[in-house]
Amino acid sequence: MEWRTFVKEYFDAVHHAWLDGQLERLRPFYMGKEHLQAKECGWVNRAYEQMHKRGAKLLQVKGRVAPTCWLETAAAVDITVFWTGKRWYLLQGRLHEEASNRLLQLRLDKATGQWEIVGTRERRGDPKSERAEEIMLRRSESASAYEDAMAQPLLVVHGAGGYQPEKAVAYAERYWNTTNPAYPRFTDDCTNFISQCLYAGGIPMLMSKEKGKGWWIRTGKSADWSYSWTVAHSLYLLLKSGGPPMRAVAKPSAADLVPGDIICYDFNGDGRFQHNTIVVAKDANQMPLVNAHTTDSRMRYWAYEDSTAYTPQMRYAFFHIRGV
């Protein structure tokens, strides 16, 4: 079977499983690997359950797949494809549209001539930035000392006229699945994207000569940036501090957030946050819908229970942005 046909049949099965919850149709794509079946069927099942838990009725699913890279050896052909999908659903009589992107890895076993799904994934955490941040954190006496450093007032640049969440949302809508050429794009781009949204909303940078302080980015030949601009956990710590420039206020639940606010995700529940999103709208139940990068997402339900990074231990942090 030609690989495009295999991928089309797989996503047809995923789309139908989203609609009716029947996961059995996915199992033939994993060649008897029960553990992988369980993992892969898990995110599809969570997507189905999350939709029904909200009281939503899924109407239609569409997707488009394009190859990004492939590698052929004597034993197998490995291909990575990029899937862009959209879902339309009704919630309390209101039509919603959701979009997201995922990477899918598949393999052709030359001995059997069979294709199989190796995995569907969402990237999380920038390894280079995370390693650099770990070095900086070890130099601090404690995480609390790091939080204190992040909260210290520094030189404020770029308009301090207050946060305009509608501008942050407009930016998130404009660049949810593309890159603003004024900024670098990272392999794991979620925090860089959120920082850009906040900046577009009028949050001023806090400049510093140290990457572990402030919230800033310099572009051009001398490009550099603070950890808090690009690393999920660093931004979480800055938001948690309640200090400048965001002066964020922690909220007890997602329902308390409004467009322009930020949600942080600790997928493993170990206290280290790996992902950030921005609230861009509320659904008919008045719950947040978010945009994000890395797995580019638009109007996605905030809980991320359909994420391949989901674990039952997942924790959230909710922040309302006040601005300077």
Computed CA radius of gyration, to the nearest angstrom: 21 Å
Order of helices and strands: HHEEEEHHEHHEEEHHEEEEEE
Count of helices? Answer: 8
Spatial gap, N to C terminus: 59 Å
Oligomer category: single chain
Structural class: alpha+beta
Give the tally of β-strands: 14
The helix fraction, in percent, is 25-40%
For the residues shown, what is the average pLDDT? 84
Spatial shape: globular
Q: Which percent band covers the strand fraction?
A: 25-35%
List the helices and strands and how they pair.
Elements (H helix, E strand, L loop, with lengths): L2 H18 L13 H20 L3 E16 L3 E16 L2 E16 L4 E8 L5 H13 L3 H9 L3 E3 L7 H10 L15 H11 L4 E3 L9 E2 L5 E2 L1 H4 L1 H10 L7 E3 L10 E5 L8 E8 L5 E5 L4 E5 L13 E6 L4
Antiparallel strand pairs: 1-2, 2-3, 3-4, 3-13, 5-6, 7-8, 9-14, 10-11, 10-14, 11-12, 12-13
Helix pairs in contact: 1-2, 4-8, 5-6
